[in-house]
Amino acid sequence: MKRSYPSMPPEFLERYLSLIGVQRRKPTVDALGELVRAHLLQIPFENISKLYYQKHLGLRGLISLGLFLDGIERFHFGGTCYANNYYFYQLLADLGYQIRLCGADMSNPDVHMVSMVTVEKRDYLVDVGYAAPFLEPLPRDLAIDYSIVLGRDRFVLKPRDAEGRSRLDLYRDGNLKHGYVAKPEPKQIRDFEQVIADSYRTDATFMNALLLTRFFPNRSIAIHNLTVVESAGAVSRIRTLNSRDELAQAIHEHFAIPADLVLDTVKAIGPLGDAWT
To answer: Rounded to an integer, what distance in angstroms lies between the CA atom of residue 154 and that of residue 177?
Structure first.
């Protein structure tokens, strides 16, 4: 399969593996699962970094790999779907996995990206950029729905349709909240240039809302605007914060991102919108 990106510099590859605490192994389902879990447990979904780099560096496109790794090391950043999923795709490809970078439709076409990996003759969906507890590769060769439940959220992956697409639905408190349709056709990162640029528009979702999520083996913590949600098993505990100062402290407490950096970033945002619209 034709490569859609330059190879990751060896020192960056080793640095990336060190950050998620995984050693290089031959591609297998078990090794893929180890990589997916490690990434979800070590690197959060968050858009503080997006807002911070846009404000201080004028960033309007995909963050560079070096800056992505620097942010993880220096500030405990992670990223949103484009950085988390693209660089994880690149890492897996450089480790020898048979992998495709694919687009996923939400309210508009190809506004999300995922990876589809073929290993040991099975096809898997890998998504470390959806703020979701996908700690294992998700099988695509399904006969029935595949469900993951954590707290008030239930994620349902449907069997592939006649065109080979995989639908993923998020139900929150029993109601359909969000979702996407992942398409199997391989993409190149340049195919996402415009949608990434659009994600920095003044009216874009992650310019007007905060969402941070990190996972642990059996639980998660999410901060959505002024709400903190701690989930374990099928139970979620929800706490409301009273101010952006409290928000900065909560993000520092749970994500270790410096509170002064957070406060400087979030004070520049206007009214906070819904990240899941």
So the answer is: 10
